[in-house]
Amino acid sequence: MIKLDTPAAEEALRQTFHRFNKFMLLNWRLGLGALLNVWPGGFGRFMVIVHQGRKSGRSYQTPVNYAPIDGDLY
Fold first, then answer.
1. Residue 38 φ then ψ, to 5°
2. Residues 24 and 33: beta-carbon distance below 8 Å
3. What's the distance, CA 39 to chain centroid?
4. Each residue's pLDDT tens digit in the chain (74 positions)?
5. For residues 13 and 3, what is the distance between their CA atoms, to the nearest angstrom?
6. What is the pTM of this model?
7. Which CA distances in Å does 47 have to 16, 41, 43, 53, 72?
């Protein structure tokens, strides 16, 4: 059994999410955002939040999962 509370496991999980986020952004930029949301019950729903760095002014894009529940987004 793999222990998930070790620093090595946490780092591996963080790197996996980092790579997955880059993959999601690539698909989004290629116009495949609708395909990412094709099966919300299985994969969830995705959107990209664009924000600007406070000091650098650099634009960042962050893919996030969301769920609409009773008119609110979570």
1. -70, -30
2. no
3. 16
4. 567 778 888 898 889 888 988 888 998 889 888 887 777 777 778 889 999 999 999 999 998 888 888 989 88
5. 12
6. 0.67
7. 19, 15, 13, 19, 15
